[in-house]
Amino acid sequence: MSLPAPRHRYTFAEYLELEDVARVRHAFYKGEIYVLSDGTAEYDRGEKLQHYQQIPSLAAVVLVDHRSPRIELWSRGEESWSCTPFGAGDVMPLDAIQCSLPVDVMYAAAREA
Questions:
Q1: Looking at residue 54, what is its pLDDT?
Q2: Sign (positive or negative) of CA dihedral 77, 71, 88, 110
Q3: Is pTM, for the whole model, over 0.70?
């Protein structure tokens, strides 16, 4: 019987150092770093989103699909959260930080990186 390999726990400072040189973005949770991919999409829209929604001062969560031009804007309302999808040609208003994000521009910038 073989044992699973031990997982390396990172400090938040180590995570930030790695993100400075990484070509792709990651998520940091409880000392572990996760490559954002098809495999994490269910977690991102499920348990991870629920964790974010419990932060009282958080007004919005933006989920960006890495495969196609699709962005989900989760916004806190008076009594609940709502999701608005945006796609190619759309401009997403992000009132929480007083800006608008053109979907096509975001994806063009990612392809150039």
A1: 94
A2: positive
A3: no
pLDDT tens string 4-59:
666 778 888 888 888 888 777 777 777 776 676 667 778 888 888 999 999 999 99
Q: Which residue has the tokens 């770093």?
A: 33
Cβ-contact 104, 110 below 8 angstroms = no
Residue 6's pLDDT is what? Answer: 64
